[in-house]
Design goal:
single chain; two-stranded antiparallel ribbon; 7 helices; disordered N terminus
């Protein structure tokens, strides 16, 4: 209704007198009434809005995180609210983005490094597999050191034979241990029957003493045989095995060397353009690296084979002498010589009544 009155008032024509005063028209009262009505409505609306704003401020308090910027000049009504929290959040987001970017770059660098390592490993594996297949089917050439290869084959054959000696010596130890335990039990039984059978006391007594003596000598012999088994086990499963591990590394290095040598030869036989020359230079560098590795491991194998042979002769000379003397003294019934053999090789038996179980009891 107010809009219609104001629209009507806006379209009226106001007459001007000769002295410049406005004339009085019948509609003047209606214009004045419309103006008063519009003013009253604006006052009510402004009062109610101001009341609501005041109540909101009193209830919630001023928001320090927001800054009101008035645009449009003095008396303008357009306002733009910029939240300070959004500004702080923007700065924090930028900082977090920088940290995230740094972390992403580090992760990407690690991933690239791993990918490059996998690529090199795959390329090396492919070349070595290709070389191995070529050698197996007789199409590829391999580097051979006849003297060194013969020494390696002798070592492997010697290890197999020493493993057989070790297995049989362990079997002898187990069987002899069971016999000694049986003699010990038999001696105790004879001694008990000697006390309970007066008519056969002497006979049971003689046999009890004999079994106890055999049991004592058997334990002494077992100490010597156990020392022999321990020394052979160290020689076979530690000293020889260490040398064979070096030989395995040498053989792998030899295969890699031949693979990169073959690759270099194939590239050298091709065209000599710019791309091929770059590949030849890279292959030449790889060839030189693997050649040095092969020669270094070859030297290590030669040295270890030499020291192994010297150590083997020294150890086996002592252990074979011990085994012979101990077995001969036991079956000859020479208890004094048997004990002297253990003293000669510094073998100490567990004293009777010791709390710690002997190696016999640990079997």
């Amino acid at each position: 209704m107010t809009d219609s009155i104001m629209s009507k008032a806006a379209t009226m024509e106001i007459p001007i007198n000769s002295n410049g005063d406005t004339g009085t028209l019948p509609e003047d009262d209606s214009l004045e009434q419309a103006a008063k009505l519009q003013w009253s409505l604006d006052e009510k609306v402004g009062s109610s809005r101001g009341t609501r704003d005041l109540q909101q401020v009193m209830v919630s308090g001023p928001n320090l995180n927001e800054t009101s910027i008035v645009s449009g000049g003095y008396g303008g009504t357009a306002e733009e609210i910029i939240s300070t929290s959004s500004i702080k959040g923007s700065n924090m987001h930028h900082s977090n983005s920088s940290l995230s970017l740094t972390a992403d770059e580090a992760t990407r660098g690690v991933a690239v490094e791993k990918l490059e390592s996998v690529r090199k490993w795959g390329l090396n594996t492919y070349k070595c597999t290709k070389q191995m297949i070529s050698e197996r089917f007789g199409r590829g050439s391999r580097t051979v050191d006849l003297e060194l290869e013969a020494q390696i084959e002798v070592l492997r054959d010697t290890k197999r034979k020493y493993e057989t000696v070790l297995r049989l010596a362990r079997a002898l130890t187990n069987h002899f241990y069971n016999m000694v335990q049986t003699q010990h039990a038999l001696g105790d039984t004879f001694a008990d029957l000697s006390q309970k059978s007066p008519e056969l006391r002497d006979e049971f007594g003689y046999n009890a003493e004999t079994q106890k003596l055999l049991c004592k000598n058997g334990e002494t012999l077992l100490g010597a045989v156990n020392f022999f088994v321990s020394s052979i086990n160290t020689l076979v499963n530690k000293t020889m095995e260490d040398t064979l591990m070096t030989i395995k590394m040498y053989e792998n290095a030899r295969l890699e060397f031949d693979a990169y040598r073959t690759d270099l030869e194939e590239l050298s036989m091709g065209p000599r353009d710019a791309v091929t020359m770059a590949r030849i230079d890279a292959a030449q560098q790889q060839y030189q690296v693997h050649k040095e590795k092969y020669e270094r491991l070859r030297s290590d194998v030669i040295i270890k084979l030499k020291f192994l042979e010297e150590n083997k002769v020294k150890v086996m000379h002592k252990q074979l002498l011990l085994f012979h003397n101990a077995i001969s003294a036991y079956f000859a019934g020479n208890q004094q010589q048997l004990e002297q053999t253990l003293k000669q090789f510094n073998i100490k038996l567990r004293p009777p009544g010791a709390d710690k179980p002997s190696w016999l009891e640990e079997q």
